[in-house]
Every structure is written in C-alpha cells, then in structure tokens.
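Hi R.,

Here's the chain you asked about this morning:
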Amino acid sequence: MALKALDIYKLLPKKNCKECGEPTCLTFAMKLASGKVKPEDCPYLDEKAREILGASTRPPVQRVKVGVGERSFAIGEEIVQFRHEKTFFHEPGIMTAVSDRMDADTIQAIVADVRDHLLVRIGLDLRLNGIAIRSESGAPAAFAAAVEAVEAVADLPEVLLAEDPAVQEAGLAVCGNYRPLIHAATRDQYREMCALAVKYGCPLAIRAPTLDALADLSGLCTAAGAGHLVLDLTSPSLHETLNSAVAVRQHAITRTTPALGYPVFIDTRPSGLPDAALICGVLKFGSILVTDAISDESRKAFLVLRQNIYTDPQKPIQITPGIYRVGSPGPDAPVLLTVNFSLTYFTLQGYLEASGVDSFMLIVDTEGLSVLTSVAAGKLSETLVRDALKEFGVPDLVDHRKLIIPGYAAPLSGKIEDETGWKVLVGPRDAADIAEFLEKEWP
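And here is the predicted structure, written out as tokens:
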C-alpha cells in the first residue's frame, strides 16, 4: 500500500532544515505522498528509509518505452485508478495490425497510411502510434519479410506478434535494435522469449490464463532479466477483458500485487468487436491496443476520445501567448484580444476564418483560463494587455490603435484604454457573432 503523509513523516529526520526546498518536514511528507517531490530530495534520509519511501512512492505501474526515435512512446507510470483523482499520464499506443500472409505492397500501403495520417485538434497533433506484425504463416522467413516490408516504409514503433521463439527471432533480426514490443511469453516458452528480450533490450508482453498465473509468470520473467513487461489481458470475451483490465489496475494502484504493476496489452481481434474493444481499451486502462485497419471515421473518433481521456482534468490546454494571423492581415487589419485557453482560441480562430476578414489575434497568458474566469480571477488585467501589446510588437504591425476585446472582458475596457492609450471596442460575448460585429463596427 502507498504510504500516507503522516506515515512518511514518521520516517523523516524532522530537522525542518529547508534544504529540500520545503519549509517543514511535514510539508515535504505531504508533497512526497502526492508525488510532487522525490525521496532523494531529502539530504538526511538514511538508506533504510530511502528504500522504504522509494518503493512506496514510485509509480505503481511501471513505465515501458516502445520504439526509438521521434515516434517512440512511453506507457505505464500511472498512479491513480480514476482520472479525476489526478490525471492519466501516458496515453495508449494504438497499433494497426498487418499479417505476414499479406503481400509487401499491401503491408506498405497500410504502413504509409499510419505514418502519414494526422488529425490536428485544439493545436495538438493526433496520430496512430505504430504497426503490429502478426505471424499467421508460422514461417520465420515470411515473418522476417513482413517486418522488412514495414521497415522499408517508415520508422514506426512495432509489436512483433509471434509466440514461436524461432519466428520471433527472425523478426528481431530485422528490427530488434529499434525496441519493438515482443509478444508474447507464456509459461511454456518464457525462458526463450526472455532471452530474446534481454539480447535485444526490448520490452516483453506476457500472457497467462488467470491473473494469479500472470503474476507468477511476471516474477519468472523478471528473475530471468526481462524487467520491462506488458500484461496481455486479451480474451475472446470483451467483458472478461474489461474486468481483467480493471482488476489489474486495482492490484497495481493499491500495490497489493506488485507483480501486476505493468501496462496492459489488448488485441481487439479475438473479441470480434474492434470498435467496442478499442473504446473499452482507451477508457479502461489499455496501454497497447492492437487493431486491424479501421475506417477513417472510427480512427478520428478513437484519437479524439484518447485525447479527451488523457488530458489533465486539472490543467487547461493552453496556447502559447503571442500574435497570430488569420489570413494575410495588413496594417489596417483588426486586432482581437483573447486568452490562451485553447478552446477559446480555436473557436475564435474558426469564426474569424469563416468571416473572411484578415485579422490579428493577440493571445495573452491567463494560465489557460477562459475569458470569464480569467476576468473574475484577476488573471486578465489592463497591465497584462499593455505588456502583451509591447512584447509582441503589435504597434509595429498596424497603423491604427484600436483593440477589440471579448464581451466578457467589458468591465476592463476603460482600464485598458487608460493603461495602453488604445481605443477599446467591446466585441460580442459569443464568438459566433464576430463576423456580424466586424461588418458593423470595423471600418
């Protein structure tokens, strides 16, 4: 079980030396319990206390990295059962499957689609993560050829789905240096699969019929040197897969079964319901999700769902403050002020683009708060606007001195005019009305 703040405090030296950066040892204990500091930050902990605190405060779900390079991704390192308690950190990797029974052209077409597909939403790039290669022929040469076809098109993270160690080794001979996920070790051949994982430095998925057997196999693989594990919870029944994923997260978060403290692998094919399985995998603790090719509409839906679930609910998505152009604005173009809350920015940008009016958007830093909230909290102020106009060189971009502010910022209009010397025009509260406003109010 994770230690509570008072339990941690009992293990601390109680010097209140402030060398850790906190005012008291109790404050340090509270932050350590919430994961905001590390045991190493206290210079006076003895080795026994450091060991106890390290085991208690490190993430209960181990971090595992798949792939190398720009498209590599990490999974695991989660610390809560429910997103609202804090946040989920590492979104699941969605891997599109190909088969070694496919010809090279078909494989490469699928790989190129995964490589190039991009969905931009609220300023973030959403992509599928990589390719899973299934060994359906059972032939090492065919499997190696399929892996070579993937490698010829893109440097994407890979999952090698081959339970025969000889077939697995043929695939690793092609891509083993690129840290693919090896799938999957079982009780019958775990020694051979662990040896391959150690040889190539790759993470290893393991599979067993029950959670108890999976925990035992986890211990065997760890003892064999394969410490970066992923737990395959795939079942022909989607209901069983979901229940197992929930149970594994509970065992991990409560630290009742540390041997189950690893990311979860789910293959949608056995369920026969890839869409439903992907949804459940995203919502309920899947870390590697393997699916056959899906429609463009479904793909977009899953990427958006994943983004929503793996966005910190306590931290608004923010846009970098600055001056942004809509169209090709000149020195007579309007300047519209708004905050750096992403949804506000993209909503206003969309309506400005639809209006056809070339404009400047001045985005100020309100720490991601909306207009109404930032005004109420004092984050949006006349001095902030004054400093932003100067910092981003807005007076050099336009010949006029007129600034359009959001309707909800109307109480600040007079203060902004006094502080900046600019004439303030109070815009509509709803961005949907901006086109009509510009048509009537902008010369």
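One quick note: The chain has a mean pLDDT of 92.

Cheers,
M.
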